[in-house]
C-alpha cells in the first residue's frame, strides 16, 4: 500500500463486507433495531428533524459510515470529532420516567453501535455473502475501532458473534416498543417519497405508485430480517416462515443489484469513498 487507508484497509473483513450494496438494507434494519431502545429512540425524536428531512438525515449517516470505513485517518478523525461534539451538546427526557439524560451516554452509544454492525453483518449473510465464523468474529473485532470513535471504551463493546448474542439477551428486558419507537418505525415504513422518486405525483393523489411499492418491499424485508424476538415487539409474526421469506427476498435483491451494477459504467460500481481509498492504497 502506498497511502493512508484509515482504520481498516483492503485486507480487512470490513472492506470485504462493505463493498456489498445490499448493506443499504442492513442500514434500514439497524434503524428498526435501534427504535426498540426507549431512550435511544427518544433521543432521536427529541433532537432530530428526521420527520421533515428523513432522506437528508439518512444521507448524512451514510456519509459518516462511508468515511469511517474508507476515509483517511485525518478524514475519520475529523468526522468523529464533529459527531462527538454534536452529541456532547444534546440531552433528552425519558418519556417513561421524566428523567433527563445525555445523548452520549455509553449505554445508548453501545446499543446504536451494536445494532448497526450486527445489522450490516446479518443482512449480508442472509443475502448470501459468504463469511467464515472467524471472519464474522473478525468483523466485530475490527468494528471496535469505529466504536472508539464515538467515545466508547472498546473493552465494553461486544467483539465476537457470541458476545453480541449475549449482549442482546442481556438487553432484551430493557427494550420495548414505546410511542416514540412506534412513530419512528411507522415513519421508516411509510416515509415521504422524494420528488425524484415520483413524490410529487404521490402528493397529488397517486398514493401508492411504483416508488412507494418498491420502498415498501425494502422495508418489509428489513423488518423480516430482524430477530424473531424483535419482530414480536413490533407485533409482527415471529414465524420461521417469515425468516425464510426475508432471506429469499434479501438474496433476490442482492442478485438484482449485482445485475444492475454489471451493466453500469465502471465508475458507478464502486462508491466515491471506496474509489478514493483504493487510489490511496495504490489499487485503483
From TrEMBL:
Record-annotated membrane-spanning stretches: none
One GO MF term attached to the UniProt entry: oxidoreductase activity
InterPro entries on file: MPAB/Lcp_cat_dom (IPR018713)
Pfam (any one): MPAB_Lcp_cat
Residue ranges occupied by any ER-bound oxygenase mpaB/mpaB'/Rubber oxygenase catalytic domain in the UniProt entry: 15-256
Protein name: ER-bound oxygenase mpaB/mpaB'/Rubber oxygenase catalytic domain-containing protein
